Every structure is written in C-alpha cells, then in structure tokens.
Amino acid sequence: MLITSTQAWADTENIRDGAYLDIGIGLGVESDPFIFDDENDSGFDLYINGRYQKYGFFVEFPHGTSKQQATVLSLGYNFLNTDNWAYDLQLAMNHRDLDHILPESHINSRRVSHSKLGLRILGDFDNTHLKLIVAGASGDPDGGLYTSAWLSQNYNFYNWNVYASFGVEYRNKDVVNYFYGINEIEGLAYYRGEAGFEYTGQVGASYPINEDWVFEGFIRTTLLPSGVSESPLVDGNKVAEAALVVKYVF
C-alpha cells in the first residue's frame, strides 16, 4: 500500500514542472548612491536566469536581466495552480548583502541578507504578468517584513520582443535600519529610518539572433524611499542601470 501511494504521488506531475536556463554576458553601466559600498557593477557582467521544478518543488537562480527580487537563490514549493494564477511558498532573500567600509574607523560594516519564507502569487494573462510577494526579511532585531507587487507587459513587433515592467516594494523600518541604520560606535551620525516604498521601472527589448542566441538591451531605474536615501550611508535617492547582453538559451 505504501509503495502504491508513493508511486501515485511520483506520477502526479505539476503543470509548471520543467526547466529553463539562459546564460549571457553583457556590458553595462550602473550608478548608485551608496557611498561606502565598494561594489561596482559597471563593466562586463554575467547574467544567469535558471529555473527547475519537479513535483511542485523548485529551485531558481534569478540573476538575469530582470531583477524583480533581490535574491541570489530561491527555493520553494508550487502548491496550487489555476488557469491564470500560480501560488508558491518561497524561501528567498529580499535585499542584497551590503558591505560598507566606514570612514575614520575603517570598520567593515557588513549587512548580511538571510533567506526568509514567504508567499508568492504569479498571474499570467497572455502578454500581461503579475507578481505579488509577502515575506519575511532580514531586520533589526529580526522583525523584517517585505511585500512587493510587479506588473509586466510584453509586445511583439516583427521579431522583436519589447517589454516594460513596474514594481513597488515595501520594507518595514526593521529592514531599513538593519541595512541602513547607523549605531553610535560606527563613526557616523546615529541614524534610524522609517519604513517606505521603493519604485522600479524597466524597459527593454530582445531579438533572437538564431534558435539559441538572443540579443537584449534594457534600462532600469529605482527610486529609493526616504528612510534609505537619508541614511549617512547614502547620497541620493536613485539607482540607474543599463546594459547590452548576448545570451544563450538552453
């Protein structure tokens, strides 16, 4: 009976089961207002967008040209699907790691982002795509809350795929202060920020060179909330990025 039940479970495939992978190299430029973060994303960069799902369990590596969630790796379970909606339990980061070499003290103030469990809802309506996320996030003392909503639209023009996306991300003050707060011992003015919304817009276009190779270009701009932009670690409220990418689709 146990063997029969196990075989029946194994034979039940999820409609989203499958695999996808594209790997590309691109030349890009990025400007950001993070003063003491040595990370420089201008120049050549590797873009990898991959996903594998079996029996509802999935692993994702979303380091492609569309950054709609700041995570290196995503694990989860797709527990429900309808005609237009998919529901996932997802374990992912919701902010990138930050390394700040602080002035005077020269302390490496490292802010590590940990993966947290959340609910992700995906909606697909022909060329219109929705993504909704409610999840935990690294916070101070660890009460981080992250929510986001993304809307994407695709257009086909001859062989070109033209797309646009807009997203709103919310992080509570525990997340803001975990990554951008300053304590008195760090050599900068003490700072605590408030919760806020982050807005990201992206436009791009891709063109198939042949059956396997694709050319893509995009421009993306993010407006930071005041709780982030007013931190002594930040000088400005905008992150801008553009790149030209050639990628291979497996």
Compact summary:
By secondary structure, the chain is mainly β. The chain contains three helices and 14 strands.
Flag low-confidence runs: 1-10
How does the helix and strand content classify structurally?
mainly beta
Domain count: the total is 1
Percent helix: under 10%
Which class in CATH terms?
Mainly Beta
**Continuous helix count:** 3
Strands in their spatial order, largest beta sheet: 1-2-3-4-5-8-9-10-11-12-13-14
Major β-sheet, in short? Answer: 12 strands, antiparallel, barrel
Mass-distribution shape: globular
User: From the 3D coordinates, which CATH architecture would you assign?
Assistant: Beta Barrel
**Assembly state here?**
single chain
SSE string, helices as H and strands as E: HEEEEEEEEEEEHEEHE
Strand content: over 45%
**Total E-strand runs:** 14
- Rg, rounded, reads 20 Å
Distance between the termini: 40 Å
CATH topology: Outer membrane phospholipase (ompla), Chain C
On the 0 to 100 scale, the average pLDDT is 89
Task: Please supply descriptive tags for the structure shown above.
single chain, 250 residues, mainly beta, Outer membrane phospholipase (ompla), Chain C, twelve-stranded antiparallel β-barrel, two-stranded antiparallel sheet, 3 helices, 56% strand, globular
Structure report:
- This protein has 250 residues and is mainly beta.
- 9% of the residues lie in helices and 56% in strands.
- β4 (74-81) and β5 form a beta hairpin.
- The longest helix has 10 residues, at 2-11.
- It is found in: Cell outer membrane.
- Keywords: Cell outer membrane, Membrane, Signal.
